[in-house]
C-alpha cells in the first residue's frame, strides 16, 4: 500500500478538501496497526467533524473500517440474512421480540447488539436479566446458533470492525461523537461485518434520541441507506419518534417482561406496532413477502401459533438462559422498594419526556454512567400515563422499583419534571416515514 503523509491529509481535510479512497484506506490500516498515534487520528476526526465527508469519502472510509477485521461467513446458511439496528432510545426493547418473530418466518437474523450507555438502554443488558443468559459468544458459536435456530443475540466480537471500536473510544474522549458521517460509518461498518443480505434501520428523533430533530434523523437515515447501497446491501430505514418512552416499561428485567408480552400476543400498542412494521420490512428485504400487509399477517401468525415464543425459548437455552421466563415472569429480578409518582394537577399529559425518564433510570441503577458500571437489572420505571392521556390529581404517573434510597433521591427530580399536565394535546406520531 502506498505511503502517505498524515500531516498533509489532516491539513487538506482541515481546509475543507477531499480525501481519496486509497488515502482513507491507508489511514484506517495505519491506525489499526498502531502506526498512527491517537493524537493524529483525533486531529483528523475533528477535521471530519467540522467539515464532514462527501459521499465519495464516506463509502471507502466505511469499507476500510469494515475491512479492518473479520466478516462473518454465513454464506452456507440458505435462509436470507437480514438484521435490524436502532439508533437508540428509552424503553426501546424492539429487537428482543422482533428477532424470534422474523426467524420464525424463515429469515436468519445474526443480531449483534450493544449495552446501554448514557440514558439509552442496551439490548444485551435486558437479555442478561434472564437467569443464566450468556451474550458473550465467540465467532464459531455465534454462527452455530444462528445456523441451527435462525437467530442469535450476542455482543460485538473483538475481531469485527476493530478500527471502529478504537475510533469510537477516541471520539468519545475528544468531543467528536455527534458527527453524522462518523455515526453512520460506525453503525454500518459493524452491521455490514455480519455478512447480511439486508438491513432494517430504526432511526429515532426526539428528546430521548441522539438526533433531536427530524431533518437530522432523516439525513442520518439517508446517509446509512447510501452506504448500504454503495456496499451492495439493501437498507430500509424507518424514522420513529422518541419524545416519550417506547412502551410502558423502562429498565431491564421489566422491559424483558414487556418483550415476552409481545411474543405472547399482547404488549403495549406502540411496541407492537413498531415491532410488526420493522419485521415486515425485514421479510420484504429477505424476499419472504412482497408487501407490508401480507408480511404483517405472516408475523402475526408466527406469534398466534406460538412459533415465535418457541423460537425465542430455543435460543435462550442455546445461550444458557432459563426458558421458563416465558411462562413465569417471577424468575426475572425485581428491585425490593416501591415509589409512586403522582399527578400534581388534573388534565391531560402534554409531556412525558424520554430523556428525563431515561436519565432517571440510569441514576436508579438501570443504566451506566461509565462503561465499567454494573447494572441493577431489577430497577424499573413503569410509565402509567403518556402524552394525550387524561389524569386526575393524585393519579399515578409512574411506579418506580428501586434498590437504593439515595439513588431514588437523585432520580426523583428528573421524574417530577418529566411529566407536564395541562390542556389536551394530540398523541405524537410513532412512525414518521420510510427511506429506502
Do you know the CATH architecture of the largest domain?
Answer: 3-Layer(aba) Sandwich
In DSSP terms (H or I, runs of 4 or more residues), the helix count works out at 16
Write down the CATH class of the largest domain: Alpha Beta
**What is the helix fraction of residues, given as a range?**
40-55%
Largest sheet: 4 strands, mixed
* Class by alpha and beta content: alpha/beta
First and last CA, distance: 35 Å
Architecture overview:
The protein has 436 residues and is α/β, with parallel strands linked by helices. It folds into three domains: 6-52, Transferase, Pyrimidine Nucleoside Phosphorylase, Chain C (Transferase, Pyrimidine Nucleoside Phosphorylase, Chain A, domain 3, Up-down Bundle); 82-326, Pyrimidine Nucleoside Phosphorylase, Chain A, domain 2; 333-422, Pyrimidine nucleoside phosphorylase-like, C-terminal domain (Aldehyde Oxidoreductase, domain 3, Alpha-Beta Complex), CATH 3.90.1170. It has helices at residues 6-14, 21-32, 38-51, 55-66, 95-103, 123-127, 139-149, 162-174, 180-192, 214-231, 253-263, 269-285, 292-304, 307-318, 354-364, 405-418, and strands at residues 82-86, 109-113, 151-155, 198-205, 234-241, 249-251, 337-342, 347-352, 380-383, 390-391, 396-402, 419-422, 431-435. The strands form four sheets. Strands 1-4-5-13 form a four-stranded mixed sheet, sandwiched between helices. Strands 6-9-11-7 form a four-stranded antiparallel sheet. Helix 5 (95-103) packs across helix 12. The longest helix is centred in the middle third of the chain and has 18 residues, at 214-231. The model has no long low-confidence stretch (mean pLDDT 94).
